[in-house]
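Deviations from the work plan: none for this task. Representative record:
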Amino acid sequence: MQMDLRTVSIEPLRHTYSHIARRFGDKPASRYQEGTYDLQATVNFHYRPTWDPDHEIFDPARTRIKMADWYAFKDPRQFYYGAYTLARAKQQDAAEATLGFVETHGLVDTLDAALRERAARLLLPLRHVAWGSNLNNASVCAYGYGTAFTQAFIYQSMDQLAIAQNLTRVGLLLGGDEALDQAKDDWMNADAWQGLRRYVEDTFVLKDPYELFIAQDVALDGLLYPMVYEAIVGGVFASQGGTAIGLATQFMSEWFGETKRWADATVKTAASESADNTAQIEHWVTHWRDRAAAALRPVAQIAVAEGADELIAEQVEQFNARMAKAGITV
Amino acid sequence: MDMKATSGKKLGLKEKYRHMTRGLDWEPSYQKKEDIYPYMAYEGIKIHDWDKWEDPFRLTMDSYWKYQAEKERKLYAIIDAYAQNNGHLNVTDARYLNAIKLFLTGISPLEYMAHRGFAHAGRAFPGAGPRVACLMQSLDEIRHAQTQIHALSNYNKHYNGFHDFSHMLQRVWYLSVPRSFFDDAVTAGPFEFMVAIGFSFEYVLTNLLFVPFVSGAAYNGDMGTMTFGFSAQSDEARHMTLGLEIIKFILEQDPDNVPIVQRWIDKWTWRGYRVLTLVGMMMDYMLPKRIMSWKEAWEVYFEQNGGALFKDLARYGIRPPKWLDQIAFDKDHISHQAWATFYQYGAASDFHTWSPTDDELDWLSKKYPDSFDKYYRPRLEHWREQAKQGKRFYNTTLPQLCQVCQIPMIFTEPGDPTKTCYREVDYLGEKFHFCSDGCKEIFENEPEKFKQAWLPVNQIYQGNCFPDGTDPTVEDFEPLAKVLEYYHVNFGRDNLDFEGSEDQKNFAAWRGMATTNE
Amino acid sequence: MSTVFIALQANEDTRPIIEAITADNPHAVVNQQPAMVKIDAEHSLVVRRQTIEELIGRDFDLQELQINLITLSGHVDETDDELTLHWNA
C-alpha cells in the first residue's frame, strides 16, 4: 500500500505537553521550553539521600535564595543540549581554524621572547582555574533546584573543561610540555598565584549552589575574563606585537561575551524576586568581588609591570556597572 | 598499556588526553581534601591511587562537540522530516504507540535523573579521569531526556497518554517502579551510584532496552524512536565502558572493596531486572511486528553477554549475581504476568491495553512453548471472549505492592508458576511485604532506606493521592476518579482498552485520508 | 570462550567500516538486524584505522565511530590506530 502522507491535513489534538500548556497556553512550544520546564521531580521522593539526609534529592532549601517558582529563570540563549552543542561545535571550529593558522604560520615564533614568556606565565596557570570552575559548575548543576536554573550549569561546567583544554593547547604551542609543568609549579608555589588558588579552593567547599554561582561565574569570572582576555591580551599584549596570542585565545573572549548575558539574567531573575534575595546577593557579590579583585592583583602584575592597581580598579568599576544593570548595587 | 602511533611532535591520543585531564588537577592545600570531597569515605570503599584509573574513551571537548553536533544535526533533521510528513501514520498499528507512551513516561524522565546523578557523582570523585567521564555522561543524559521529549512531541500532538509525563512519573502507581529505582540509586553514595547505574544498568541491562526494542521500533515503522534510540545508544557505548572501568578500578584498588561491590552487584542486577519487566512486556505484547521475544533478547544480552562479563570479573573474586536461577526460570513468565496486570488495571493506567490477536497468541505460543499455552493463553482468550460480550474485565481492587521494587505482587514462586510469591519482614513493629527473596534481602540490608518508600497504593489509602481540596467523606465519592484526576489521566481518553479508543479511531481515519480520495 | 560484539547503525557511513571489520577479523560473525548490524567475535575484535582508510580513500579518525556506534561489549582499548575489544577470561 502506497500512502502519500504529506497530503493528509490533520488537526492536532493538542499543541504541546500539558505541563508546558499550563505555563504558556496550548500553543506550539519551542524545543527549549519542552526540553526544560518541569523536567525535574519536585514531589513524592522515595528516599532521602544517604549523603545529605537533611534534604530531599532535589531541595530548594539547599540555597538561601528563595523563589516562588524556580522556572522563573530563563537562559537568554535558550540552550537545550542540541542548541548548545551546535553553537559550541561552530565556535570550536572557528577557534580551531584560528589556532591552526597561528600554528602553521609559526606566528608564535614571531613573538618577542619576553612577551611569549609573560603570556605563558599569565595564561597557563589559568587552565587550573578553569578546571576548578568545571568542578564548581558541576556542583551547582547537581545541587541546584529546577531545570531552568540547573541546566545551564552542566553546559558551563563542560565549557570550562574545554577552556582548560584550549589553554593546554595554547600552552603546548607557547612552550611545550615544559611550559605546562612550569605553570603547574607556579600555580602550586609561586606567590603571585596563591591568593587565586586559595580563592578557588575555598569555593570548593561552598554548599549553597547560588552562592557558588556568584563566587565562581559572577565574581571571579566576571573580573578575570575581561581583565585577562580583553584588557591584557587584547590591549597590552596586542600593543606589544602579541596579536597572535589574541588569535590563539579567541574562544575564551567570545565565550565570555556570550555567557555573561546568561549570568546577568540569572542574577537579575533572583534579585527581582524579593528584597531579601537582593540583599543576600549583594552581600555575596560584594564579598566575593573583593576577594577576587585582591587575588587577581598579583596575577595582573605578571602582565603589567606597573599599573596593576589601576587595571583592577577599572575591572571592578565595569563589573559594578554590569551588576547595577542586573539590579545589584555593590 | 603501550603507546602506539605517536608520530613526530603530534601528540598521541593517550598522551594528549593526559595533558587535557589529569594534568589539570592538583593536590589542594588551602582546604582539606575530605572537605572538598566529603562523600568519599562513608560507603567503606577504599581508593589508594586515583591515577591508576584507565580512561576508556579519550574524548576531549573539541572532539566531543564535533561528533555530538553531527549526531544532533542528523537526529533533528529526521525528527523534523518525520513530523512534517505525518510519519506517525507509517507505524504498523496505533497499538504500537502505547509502548512509546511507556517509554516517554517511564524512561525519559529517568534519563534526566541520570543527568543530575552523574553531575553529583562527577562532583564527588577526586580523580580527574572519572570526574571528566561522569560529567560528560551527565551532559549526554540531558541530551537523551531532551531528544526523547522532542522526538515524541509530535506523537503527543496526535495521540493521548503522552501529555503529562513528568507529572505522571511522580504520581502514577506503576511509574513508581522505574522512579524508585532511580531515586534509590541517586540517594546511595557515589560509588554505589556508579555500580548501580554505570555498571549494572548501563553495562548489563540497557542493551535490552535500547538495542532489541529500538530495532523493533524500526521494524514497526517508527523512524522517530529508532533515530533517537540509536543516537542515544551511540553515547551508551561510552557510558557502558565507563561502567566497566569503574568497577574494575574499585575492585583493583583494595580487596576490602570486593564484598561491598558484590552486594551492590547482587542488589542492582535484581533491581534492574525487576524494572525491565516493563520492557519484556513491551517487546512481547506491544510491538505489532515482532523481531525477537523478550526471552530471546534476555538470552543474547544478559545470559551470553553478562555471562562473559562475570566470567571476566571472576579473577577479582566477583561471582555472578544472586538469584540467577530464579531469573533464568522467570524469563518464560514475567512478560506475560506483567501484561495480564496492565490489562486488568487498564482503567488506572495512562496507556491502552488490548486482547492480542490469534496471530499474536500463536507467536507467543511458539516463542514460549514451555509456559504460554499452559499458563497464560487460556486466561487471555477468556478475557477476549468476555470483552467480545461487552464485559471487558477491569480490576478495581488495588493490589499490594512490593516494598522494594514497588511492582504489585504478581510474580510467582521460584519453580512454580501457579503460586504467587509473598515474603514479609517485621521491622520495628511494622510488617513489610515483598515479591521475592531478592527484594526481601535488599530490604534487610537497608531497612532504614526502604521503609521510607512512597508506595502509591498505600498513599492512595492514606488519602494522599486526591486533588487539593478533595473531600472523601461526601456521598457517592468515587476514589478512582479522584485518583485519576490527581494523576492527570483523562478518563476515557488516556486509559481503558485500545478497542474503541480515540487513538484507534483517529489513526484509522487519518490513514483513510491518506489512502482514499475522501 | 566469551564473545565480544560491536553494533553499528546500518547506513552508508558504516558500510566500509563493517567491511573493514570483517576483513580484519575473519572469525567475526555479521548479523543483519532491522536498521543495525551486530558483529560478534569470539574473545576479541579489532577495528583498524588503516583498513577503513583504504576503503574510503580519506583520513579516518577512529573517534568518528562514535557517530554510528550503537553498542559494544568487552574491554575497550583505543589508540590512534586501533580500537580493540576483548575479554580477559
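Chain C has one domain: 3-86.
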